[in-house]
Amino acid sequence: MTKLYQAIIWLASVGVLTYFVKMYVLIFLVISVIIVISSKLFGKGKGKNIIVADIFILVSVFLAMKSSMSLILPLGYSVFAFSAISLIVNQYRDYKDYKVLEILCYLFFFPKIFAGPIDRVDDFVRQLREKKPALERLYPSAKMCIYACFYKYVIADRLYYLCNEEYYGLNEICSILCYGVAFFFDFYAYSIFAIAFAKLLGIDLPENFDSPYRSKSFRDFWKSWNITLGTWLRDYIYIPLGGNRVSRSQWGLNILLVFVISAIWHNFTIPFILWGIIHAILLITERYFSIKGNRYYGIWVVTVCILLWQLFDVDGIDDFVFRLSRCIEYQPIDTSIIIGCVVALGVLWFADRSSTKEIIFRHRNTGRYIMKEAPITCIILVLDILLTNNSGINFFYMRF
């Protein structure tokens, strides 16, 4: 029965991936065979050459696709590659005899493959062996989807629409702020969807956000934004380079390398690389001046982070500079973008409340808890029904 359950998960995952990437799924299948064989070889005492060869293959496919004018990097390849690297490195460090079907399920698991969360093979396989889909998981999963729909289709997509206009002065400042909030809710919603669908299949994926816009330092921000990618970069790049056990200058180079790699993996363009370099410089500066952060410094941190998201939305540095220059030009107040900004901040406050996150991610059968949860969830569901115009699968992070 367990093998049938795993086979269904893998076939469903391959089917979902094929729907989105078409014939590119062959790339995933070929590489998965290589990864499965490699992971098994560690049990026979093989060494580092396997890791080097596998990482070379994964990175070469990425670079070939990114640098080609005629080829497109397949959707989901980034998370697939991160999962594959995590698997082979963990097998080298501490070999475990995973079944072939377990490895394939881990690599292809459809709720996470397009934009994470990036889980670890030990946690995934343990749950794959122990947990099965159960009827009591249906309500928590549905509840998560209700909130994810609200964050994505009611909030994020409407804010994106507002930001499409060309504004100046205060209107442009509000537009940039709206974009930063929309960007967060877009990615946050996808992560909630991924956790919800995985839960329905008996797998608990890790949460990927912890109130990043409440951070009091850049270090705090990167501990709470895309948490699973951050821990992956820490465990498989930062720590092998020496982490914080090296000299200050070497540490700075390590941080710079980690952020440049992260930027390039998102998109091999100048704006993305600049984004990575700036964030590395900000983190290095914080450590050099021993800045611990507080509420007022946190305002500066969040403002800079939101401003730098514009580098994800421009074609070049000139476009980014032009957007910044528009902030100091005059334009009469546009009530639509001002109201949108106020609503965005209001929803952000609502989403960041611990009570809201508890409703989304936790479930208790006590009467008092249900009396609080049920009315709020029903209101969100009604807003989903009334205000959702387009429920297409157009998440921003699915571009990488």
What does this structure look like?
Pfam families: MBOAT. The chain crosses the membrane at residues 6-37, 49-65, 71-89, 176-198, 251-284, 296-312, 332-352, 373-397. Keywords: Acyltransferase, Cell membrane, Membrane, Transferase, Transmembrane, Transmembrane helix. This protein has 400 residues and is an all-alpha fold. α2 (25-41) runs parallel beside α4, α8 (138-163) packs antiparallel against α16 and α8 crosses α18 (367-387). It contains 18 helices and no strands.
* Count of discrete alpha- or pi-helical segments spanning 4 or more residues: 18
How many β-strand runs? 0
Distance between the termini: 36 Å
Q: What summary fits the major beta sheet?
A: none
Strand content: under 5%
Radius of gyration: 22 Å
Helical residue percent band: over 70%
What class do helices, strands and sheet pairing give?
mainly alpha
**Given the C-alpha coordinates, what overall shape results?**
globular
Q: What value does the average pLDDT take?
A: 86
Task: List the uncertain runs.
Answer: none
H and E string: HHHHHHHHHHHHHHHHHH
Which helices and strands, and how do they pair?
Blueprint: H1 2-21, H2 25-41, H3 48-67, H4 77-93, H5 100-108, H6 110-113, H7 121-130, H8 138-163, H9 170-200, H10 218-224, H11 227-238, H12 248-266, H13 270-288, H14 295-308, H15 317-326, H16 335-352, H17 354-361, H18 367-387
Helix pairs in contact: 1-5, 2-3, 2-4, 3-4, 4-5, 8-9, 8-16, 8-18, 9-14, 9-16, 11-12, 12-13
Transmembrane segments: 6-37, 49-65, 71-89, 176-198, 251-284, 296-312, 332-352, 373-397
Keywords: Acyltransferase, Cell membrane, Membrane, Transferase, Transmembrane, Transmembrane helix
Organism: Prevotella communis
